[in-house]
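Quick illustration, no need to memorize.
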Amino acid sequence: MLRRLSFSAALAALAVPVALTGAAHAEPGGPSTEDPAAQMQLRKQAPHDGPGPASRKQEVSRRADRARQKNQAPLSVSIDELSPSSIPGRGTVRVSGFVTNDDTETWSTINIYAFISATPLTTPEQLAEAAALPPDAVVGGRIADERHKGFIPELAPGDSAPYQISIPRRLLHVSTPGVYWFGVHALGESAEGRDQTADGRARTFLPLVPEARTGQEPTAIVIPLRHQLVYTDDGSLDDLAGWIQTLSQGGRLRSLVDFGASSGTRTVTWALDPGLVDAVRRIADGNPPRSLEANLRAGQADGEDEGDQGTEGVTGGSAGPSTSPSATGATESPGTQPSEAPGNPLDLDQLDPVVQAAAKAAAAWLNRLGEAMRPEDQVLSLPYGDVDAAGAAVHDPELYQRAVARAGTTLPGFGVTTSPVLSSPSGYLNKKGIEAADPSSTILLTDQMFDAPAPALARTEGHDVVVTSSGAAAGGPGPDDPTALTAMRQRLLAEAAVRFLRGGHEPLTMVLPHDWVPPAESASFFSGLDPAWLDVTSVAVVSRSALPTTVDGTALRYPRYQQEAELDQPNFDAANALIRSGASLQNLLTLNNLVSGTVTDQALDSASYSARTRPIAMRASTDQSRVWIEARLGSVHVSAPRAVTLSSSSGRFQAVISNDLDQPVTVALDATADSRLTIDGPKRVEVPANSRQAVLLTAHTSENGIHEVTLVVTDKRGTPLGATTGLTIRSAQVSNVIWLFLGGGMVLFFGAIGVRLFRRIRDSRRTPADPDDTGDEPRASEQKEPAGAGTR
């Protein structure tokens, strides 16, 4: 019975009849194409030809038939090794892998043949169209040479078996430069018989570049290291079980580092988030919580610019916190030098087993990363925390600039010099993000943002851009795993080959998918990048290998789904609120100048590209950390008398500052009152741990009345910490009229005394002196008569 051609295969054959199909190149006795209808016609004409015995029933199981209708063959085939990776001028092409029985019944007498297309692909667009074809599309002719095939006697359901085929160059029958389809077909027999339709297939690309062709194709391979960082409220990293998985053998982050390490002496480019490296280092140290412990000695300068705070720490009327750059409290974060972390290292032996396992995995990953980054490699540093540059350009450009500055130009702990890069996981970036890019940053954009054919290098919005190949990152054509090691390598070679053959100095840059998990043994990927026409180099070399094409920024494609995925304003607001609270906490602590940097790092991590997948959860995590910090800020209190009475224009009263933290703090007091009253006090008050400190304040006023005053505890930069107390100050000054009366009375009093003294002195001077008298009798005038004596 004639088998009908599948609808998808028919469409594919009509769409690309020339580029993707060709005449059969098979040895006599073998079918010339994998088209099921054509194969059936050939069997009608020569029923006994082909690799299978003529006596076997030419039927297929209903299970296999249903699988083929769904583009799912009963056997799956992989291509694990392909050597050489391009068609040689002479010699043999060797291909090996595994065949797996995905059916519910046993398959036997399984023959594995290689196939190759007759017509090459010569453009990136053709490669993209070819990779999108359905698995059963006709793409090449089978090389049915019985001497160069693989054979598996039997496969039970679920079983796998290896195969290996060696095909002499003379059997390939190709000579035109370009990229050819190449792969294998598995043809087996089930309980219902067999036919010549492939029961399993694997396909890839195999380039042919003439040896006489001179020059090399500059090709850069970028390995991204980025990961979602989620924190608990105390600043430790969350989901240690997930960290153990990704940092251990077979995990994504470990596999990417191992992949880079397998490059040998070949150059690769690393694009890593320095925030990720710091996070892994924290896990290796036992994942400690946020530390308030002293890292400075008493009296040691904290290195912070205190700004203009005046000579008095308490004034009438309250101004907002300083908006100067120094008021942010953003100091160098811990991790800049690994030895700077405050406090003693945690004793890993005393920690939870999960924490110990995570610490060991993290330490091993850091060691492996140090080994993998070789001097010939280029290390690009993403904005710290892998900040969502597209969202930040719209909602908070300053946060992006802060992240670039925080990333710096070195990778602490490794002695590696880095250069800034701006690259999103998808390769897309909006126009504002390009405009706001740091001038020193390398910008990587996907070719999907440009009209075809996309340039290899571009200049837009005043910035030079390296355009990355989305095709190379997409991997192989399937139906086998398109992200398998060989599939990824062959797609890269195919993209490089069509550019090299076309000429025009078009370098190639491939950014590996950030979520790709390379196999454990990745050396074959780089050992296959050995054609003489290929130059595996760095992004820096690629960016200088050709002149950029000027592209209008308004012509760039930025899909709506990318715009909708950007982080919204609330996430950036939450990040900035956390940064401010961390700055206040550091400004509060007397002997710690690192905690603000730690909190800032966490805030930057919370605004990352990976936060797009969980924006609400990330915002909630950020807010919880801010609440944790504010609870510590609230551990400093102030108390004062409920009422104070001034008997003159000024007077003193006492306030008490209490510190419930186990660390010393430095604070100031701010007073909110009406304009008629001012309060002066000490510029700073240092309060030891778990103690109280009295503060003497002076109130000044020129008017009688009642004044409501609020005392606010602030950090040393004047930012309120939340603790307040209220009091009433009554001014009861005595009237000036009373002083006039009192002054007049005193003048009269002392004036009367002066008059009496003056008169006495004057009278004493006017009385004459008496003559000497020797008699004892007094003068007649001095004789006194008895009282009441009469006259005679």
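The longest helix spans residues 736-766.
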